[in-house]
Amino acid sequence: xxxxxxxxxxxxxxxxxxxxxxxxxxxxxxxxxxxxxxxxxxxxxxxxxxxxxxxxxxxxxxxxxxxxxxxxxxxxxxxxxxxxxxxxxxxxxxxxxxxxxxxxxxxxxxxxxxxxxxxxxxxxxxxxxxxxxxxxxxxxxxxxxxxxxxxxxxxxxxxxxxxxxxxxxxxxxxxxxxxxxxxxxxxxxxxxxxxxxxxxxxxxxxxxxxxxxxxxxxxxxxxxxxxxxxxxxxxxxxxxxxxxxxxxxxxxxxxxxxxxxxxxxxxxxxxxxxxxxxxxxxxxxxxxxxxxxxxxxxxxxxxxxxxxxxxxxxxxxxxxxxxxxxxxxxxxxxxxxxxxxxxxxxxxxxxxxxxxxxxxxxxxxxxxxxxxxx
Length: 374
Hints:
With about 375 residues, the protein is of the alpha/beta class. The chain has helices at about 1-15, 25-35, 35-45, 45-55, 85-100, 220-230, 300-310; strands spanning about 65-75, 120-125, 140-145, 175-180, 185-190, 200-205, 340, 355-360, 365-370.
């Protein structure tokens, strides 16, 4: 009972604000109250990452790491919550651009930080194989009678509570997209040697992708980029305390979160530093508007790669993105117009590649997955 009461008061004090850019720190605090194993394992993370990095500093960029994603869409009747395939695919494309630094707004990175802005060499794909070995689109749609979900109980992650159970957390990045109450945009679990049963990312259906149901100013898919950053071991730039430590050497010390879209330089010499460049507010791990975000740093990349190697190493050898499937999700093409062909990483294709999976996006929001054989 005491743990439930503690969780309740954390939750109540948290939702005095109308919109919450990220609830990950509060979610983690609530998990610590009820799970000592998780709490204790998190205490060792920084030490373990430093040790791994010192032993593997020449090995972090040997291969591109591809992470299989399953998107669980939890939706209620007579709502806009059952988002389209096109909206989901736009988010996968955004993740790939942001983590590979091919996003068009890299031109907005201040020149003083261009040398440390990172191609993280991490990519994402919608899973093509489900936990039972069957072909899948990587999109799991679940109808619910629950109007809204919140942090308490993580009910969107439980079939018995009106959501859906995660696919194996060691093999898939589980992303739950649903109606979040309290103005929450999203939250995520951080990695360690003990992964919680609800490991993954939760995002509001109003802030997932860049089309369909999204609402400005968080309508460019950066909520998911931010939360996946947490999922891969990154902290907020201010270390979740006044002038705190985000465990990253190449991000400036920062007093607290930034909102809206400040001009550069912003908040110079904060926290008693001699930092004329000010806050790195355009970093994905701050709170600014989506169109103002555009970079990870080299040290953030190192931490994410270390976290994958230490705590999510099934992704290093996964084959879930490489299955040779035939057509799935095929529908009648009559009265539909093809508007785009992309690969499983969300990259637009100018032609149909042979012997590889192509995704065909139509103007009615449907998607077909095919392999063109020689």
